Amino acid sequence: MSSPSSSSNPRKLQKKVKPISPNPPPKGKYKIFALLDAPKRLLHPGCMGQPDAQFQGSPVVGGTGGGGDRYGGATAGNVRGLTRTKLAELQMDDVIAGKHTPPLTLRDFEDFLAFKAKASEVLYFELWCRRYQVLYDAAAPNNRPYSDTMTLENEYKTCLSTFFDPESPLELNIPTDMRRALESSVAELKSLPADSKQERFLSPSAFDKIRFDSNELLAATFKQFVLNQSRNADRNRAIFAQFLGLTTWALGLVPTIVCTQLDKSRAWRVLGLFFWWFGIVVFVGGFKRTCLVIYLFGDSRQLYPWELQAHSYMDADSRSFVTATSATSGHDSPNPNEKSVDEGYGSAEPTPNHSRNNSFTFPDLTFFPLSPPSSPSLSDKSEKSGSTNTKRLYFAPEHILPTLPGSSPTWAPFTKVMSPLVCAEQRDNVVKAAGYAFIVMCVTAVICFAVPNKHH
């Protein structure tokens, strides 16, 4: 399908973009006194994160946003008790509407789709459909102002060039029959005579079948996102925890082996009980990617590879800024009120754009600006002039970051978890691990205590 920007080459332009969020989550620190709060967090999950929460939701497509609820859709008060809200009951629309705190924000969902599922286009298309519906319903077709008509036409062209152009890295993977039906509708519009008064864009209903198909993938990916966000450790840390847990459990066998070989009292075998229990707690926690050490030091999670790379970009930009400022002004440190001269980093942030007849607000996305291009040839002009204006570029992580590791390092830093739902889920994982460990400890103890001494 042809598109207004089909002559551009998005993949070449992408190389100019630093594709990482300019505001990654802050790194946490291990504090020994945090261990004293572990019992309280076990009994009251989420209670320690709320006083530090500074999350403020912003209104997005189809959602209420901001509002008076400081903690969004769930607070610590309704994640406890028999009728508590569970993480499995989380609604995707609430996440898109900005009703939850990290790590359940729209930004977190976008990151997961972009870097893990490699399907960010389905989220962007859903947000575009919601935006397009709002703009289309702002006025009746026969009373639509010229400015709104042009806005809708630009939005329509942006959709075609972004989600249905084979050259676009954000092309939707849809069935052939749906693509042919859309191509037929587009061709019919293009064949209209120049003096026709019919609008030069399709109605939102023309995308309903495609939207339903893409939403099935979006919903399935959302379940994976929820499962991923319930963990506090990445794959490498989880593997290490499983190895450490089995090793600890095996150490508990040492007293039994020593007693049987040296003909000592069975009472010494009691020393293995703690190792049998604690080792299995660590092992099961690693199996569920819930590191016990991270949990004991607070409601936290490890930073993901893209967040770690964002921090490395920030550190590099900070060092470059200090060097440049010192060389030009003679000072040792930069003015905190000044901005970095590196315009490339974070320049892909969306800019709010309001239609004349409505107060629609853009969602706060990291990688994909929803503002339409001002002209079809803008990308070509930018490429020829060497411009680094990234507001017209697509985001495709599979092309930009082919070497991004699949897991954070074992000892990667962590960041704070503010969502009471996630805190409760992590607490449940730890409690379940402790229960399984108690059963394994009892079975192991019965077997070990039954083994006779060698010289008996």
In short:
With 456 residues, the chain is mainly α. Helix content is 47%, strand content 1%.
- Give the N-terminus to C-terminus distance in angstroms: 85 Å
Poorly predicted regions: 1-21, 50-77, 321-364, 371-400
Tell me the strand order in the biggest sheet.
1-2
**What is the rounded Rg?**
28 Å
Number of helices: 16
Oligomer type = single chain
Helical fraction: 40-55%
- Fraction in beta strands: under 5%
Write down the overall mean pLDDT.
75
Descriptive labels:
single chain, mainly alpha, 47% helix, disordered N terminus
How are the SSEs placed, and which strands pair?
Layout: H1 10-14, H2 38-43, H3 92-96, H4 106-117, H5 120-136, H6 146-163, H7 176-190, H8 208-229, H9 235-251, H10 254-262, H11 272-287, H12 292-296, E1 300-302, H13 305-329, H14 378-385, H15 397-400, E2 414-416, H16 420-450
Antiparallel strand pairs: 1-2
Helix pairs in contact: 5-6, 5-8, 9-11, 11-16
